[in-house]
Task: structure prediction
Amino acid sequence: METVKQLSLFLENKPGNVYGICSTLGEAGVNIYTLTLADTAQFGILRMIVEDSEAAKALLEKAGYVVNIADVLAVRIDNQPGRLAQVADILNKEEINVEYVYAFANRHIFLYRVSDTEKAYSKLVSNGFCVLSSQELFNTNK
Amino acid sequence: MERSALQALAQKDFMSRDELESIQLKRLKNIVSHAYKNQALFRSRMQEKGLDDTCIKELKDIQKLPFFKKVDLRDTYPFGLLCVPMENIIRLQASSGTTGSPIVIAYTKEDVACWQEATMRALMIAGIGSGDILQNAYGYGLFTGGMGLHYGAEGLGVTVLPISSGNTERQIKLMSDFGVTAISCTPSYFLHIIEKAKQLGYDFKKMKLRHGIFGAEPWTNEMRQRIEQESGIKAWDIYGLTEISGPGVAMDCPARTGLHMFEDLFYPEVIDPETGEALPDGTEGELVITTLNKFGMPMIRYRTRDISVIVKGTCECGRTIRRIKRIDHRNDDMLIIRGVNVFPSQIEAALLTIPGVQPHYHIIVRRHGDLDTLEVQVELSAELFGDTIRSIEVIQKKIGNAIKSIIGLAVTVTPVEP
Result:
C-alpha cells in the first residue's frame, strides 16, 4: 500500500499561529507541498504535506506545537467531469468514511483521509486510479 | 413562637458585654470539655500542647487552643469528628471538599435548634417576620442554604415558599403571583432574576418584594447598589458556612457597617494567617470561629479562610454583638461559582480521571451577564488530539462530564496548546 504521511497540528485560534508554523519550517528549509486549515469557534487543525514528515514533526514539537502524523492517500484524479464522483462512489460502496479531503493546488492530485485507508487504497487501485507513493508525489511536484 | 419569646430572642443581640462575655465563657468551657472528652483528634492536639479541658479560665484562654482546618474534616471523613453517638444525630449536611470527597457536618436536635435560632435572629434584623412571604431560592438538599433559611423563616411564622434554586421564569412568576415580600438566594442569582424579569416584561415596582437575603458567596458594595437600584428592594448580606452550621452566623444590620456575629453562639477571632497569632479588633486577618453551642460536631477555632476584620466600637444600631467586615476575599484558592464552592484541585482530580489528559490547566471565571461561568482550558497532548475535529470534541465532552460529576456545574472546556 502506498500512503503519504501528513502532519496534523492542533492550533488555538490566535493571530500569528499559521505564520509561526510556516516560518519555523521555512527557516529549516522544509518545503510545504500543500496545506489546509480546518477551524471551529475554539480551535483549528492545520494539515500539511512535507517531504520528511518525521523530521518536520520533531522540529515543530521542539517549537512547542502539538503534532500528529496521519496516513493519507494521494490519488491522481483526471480533470474530467464525474471522476471525483467515481471516487466517492467507490468509497461509499465499501462504507468507507471520508474524514476530510483536500487538493494539491495546481495538480490533479487529491489527498484523502478515510476511515479504512487500506481498503480504500486497494479499491481505488483496482478501479484504475493512480494512488501515489510519497516519492512519486514529491518527484512530480519538483 | 409567641411574640414575647421572639422579642426576647431579638434582645439577645443587645445584651451588655459583661453578660455576653459571661455566657461566652461558660459555653466555651463547656464545649472545650465536651470535645476533649469525646473527640480523639481534639484531645490529642490539646495533649500535644500540654493542655487539658480545664485550661479555660477566661475568654482569652481560647488563644491557647489548637486550630481546626478544612483538611481535618476531610481527613476524618465522614464521622471522625463526631462527639455524640450517631443515634443522637438528626441531620447530616455536606459541602464540596477539595478532592471530590465532601465535608460532612452532623447536627444533634439541639444543634439544629441553635442553627434555627441564628437564622431567626438574622431574619429579624432585616425586619422579616409573620406576614411576610419568603421565596427561598437557595438550593435545598445537602447544601445548608436552603434548609437553613427555611427553618429560620418557619420559626418566625413567615410563609415559606421552598422553591429552591433554578427555573428562573417560574421564580419570577410565583414571586409576582403570590405577592412574595422577601427572597433568599445568592446575590448573583438575584441579579440574573432581575435581568430575566426585565426581559419578560415584569416591573419590580409593581411587585411586593421588599427584602433580599443574600449570601453564600463574596459580593461587593457595588453589586449591592446595583441590586437595590434595579429592583428597589433592600439587599441584606448574610454570612455563614457549613462547617460552623450554615447561613446565619453573621448578619447585616440597617447601619451597614459590618455583619453582626451571633457571638453567644459563634465566637469570632481574627488571626494572622501566617503565624496563627490572634490579632486585635480592627486588624485584618483570617476569620476564626468557635461554635459555642454545637455538640454533634463542635468546631473549635475553625479557620474559615475568609479574610475579614472584627469592627471596633459599638454599632449605631445599638446591637452589642460584634461586627465583622463584609467578606470580599479569601486566603485560599477556593472559588465560589453561583454559590457552589469550587477548588482548583477538584478540576485537577477530574482531569486525572481521563487517560492521557495532563493536569495542566487554566480556570477562567467570567461574569456572563450576571452569572459566573467557568471555563477550563486544558492542554491538549498529541495522544489526545488524534487528527480530526471530532476526536477533539469527544475529549472536550469527556472532560466536561468528568468535571461536572465532581463539582456539579457545567463548564466550558477549551483545548489549548501546551
About this structure: Chain B has a mean pLDDT of 91.
